[in-house]
Write a structure and sequence with these properties.
Elements lengths: L1 H21 L8 E5 L3 H4 L9 E2 L8 E5 L9 E2 L1 E4 L4 E3 L5 E2 L6 E6 L6 E9 L7 E2 L4 E3 L6 E3 L1 E3 L3 E3 L2 E3 L1 H7 L10 E4 L7 E5 L1 E2 L1 H7 L3 E2 L2 E7 L12 E3 L1 E3 L3 E11 L4 E2 L14 E8 L21 E6 L6 E10 L8 H5 L3 E8 L9 E2 L3 E11 L3
Parallel strand pairs: 3-9
Antiparallel strand pairs: 1-2, 1-5, 4-7, 6-8, 8-9, 10-30, 11-12, 13-14, 15-20, 16-17, 17-30, 18-19, 20-21, 20-28, 22-28, 23-27, 23-30, 24-29, 25-26, 25-28
Length: 378
């Protein structure tokens, strides 16, 4: 009998060993995320969010960080998140000199059979564009929602546009990408446009008294660090511009949702939802040289605002209708500071004007296309 148990044990061991040996190793060799960390290095970046490149598309082999000035750039340690089991050379987190141009990294799959080469580089912000038609977008790396970028055919892509889609994923992780608050729509004036829709946040919203998520779209970045604690701080409004804006124009369509509610789910039958379209130019550093970044709670009230433009009335319409807003403000513009990116320009669109306080109507929909910024001529 003891021999029977002995052979049974050996047979089981052989089966387990065979299973372990036969399990295939990962063949993927992608960079999923890249970042620079350290307070001593933050001074070289315009925004803290510029220190991280998330949602790296599987189709790209070029990663570019945006910095203040390339001439003052020191050696940088780049950290990476890779597909499981993959390795990278040069080693993750080692100091690299980018003064002579891009540095090449090679990612090797876990099974050692596949390799992929990436280049990592740093550049100063692109010169501001005056026309945006929102044709350049893609799904996020996780496939949950859409992201937009500005494509300059000479210098590549720049991630200057953001939305609250990443925050909505927390409330409804199983929602289809087309059911998020901010999505592309193929029925633009010619090609695609932006469609912003106020959406219900479901049971999550009931628990946290945040029943709606307005569709929003803005120049800036979304910082998910505050998504569960202080949602108004997630929106980092504005990017550096080197020209003084005079006016913003574009086209819109809008239809309000049927039932307006407050954050406690109370229906307010006398309220009709309305969208918001506005822009501000503000100083991006205070008197002591500390960085200034406006968020959802102070983007219209900060003392650092020097120019403000807002569309006072956005009537409901099913046809493409032109809007135009002119910047107002008497604070003198420092031309030297402007030329050195000392001002940020924020441009914001939202399907519910009071969506920041979670008041609005589910179904309110704002379409935006063909936005043009007019700058002061030299």
């Amino acid at each position: 009998m003891k021999y029977t148990y002995h052979w049974a044990f050996l047979l089981l061991a052989m089966i387990l060993t065979s299973c372990i040996k036969d399990e295939p190793k990962n063949m993927e060799c992608d960079i999923l995320e890249a970042w620079v960390e350290g307070d001593n290095l933050a001074q070289y970046f315009i925004r803290s969010t510029d220190m991280r490149i998330s949602d790296v598309p599987s189709s790209t082999d070029k990663l570019t960080f945006t910095i203040r000035e390339r001439a003052t750039l020191p050696a940088m340690p780049i950290n990476f998140t890779l597909t499981p089991g993959a390795t990278i050379s040069p080693t993750n987190g080692t100091m690299q000199d980018f003064s002579n141009g891009p540095v090449t990294y090679t990612v090797t799959s876990e099974d050692g059979q596949w390799h992929r080469t990436y280049t990592v580089d740093f550049r100063e912000p692109m010169l501001p564009s005056n026309e945006y038609d929102f044709e350049d977008f893609e799904l996020s790396t996780n496939g949950h929602y859409y992201v937009w970028y500005y494509l300059n055919h000479e210098r590549g892509r720049d991630n200057i546009w953001a939305s609250g889609n990443e925050g909505f994923m927390i409330a409804k992780p199983n929602a289809a990408a087309t059911d998020y608050p901010t999505v592309p729509d193929e029925n633009g004036i010619d090609g695609y446009c932006i469609r912003l829709t106020t959406q219900s946040t479901g049971s999550w919203g009931k628990t946290f008294k945040k029943p709606i998520a307005a569709g929003n779209f803005f120049l800036g970045a979304f910082n998910s660090e505050y998504a569960l604690t202080n949602t108004l701080k997630t929106t980092e409004m504005g990017i550096p511009y080197t020209k003084e804006p005079i006016k913003v124009a574009g086209y819109y369509k809008y239809s309000p949702g049927e039932i307006f509610t407050d954050k406690d789910f109370n229906e307010l039958p006398d309220r009709i939802d309305e969208p918001s379209i506005y822009s501000v130019l503000y100083l991006n550093h205070d008197e002591q040289g500390n960085e200034v970044m406006l968020h959802g709670d102070d983007v219209l009230s900060s003392p650092y605002i020097v120019r403000k433009a807002e569309v006072a009335s956005v009537p409901a319409t099913k046809e493409w209708t032109r809007f135009e807003m002119t910047f107002e403000g008497s604070t003198p513009i420092d031309e030297t500071l402007l030329a050195n990116r000392g001002y940020n320009l924020a441009l914001v669109f939202s399907s519910s004007k009071t969506g920041d306080t979670f008041e609005g109507a589910v179904g309110s929909t704002l379409y935006i296309d063909k936005v043009e910024i007019t700058f002061k001529t030299e």
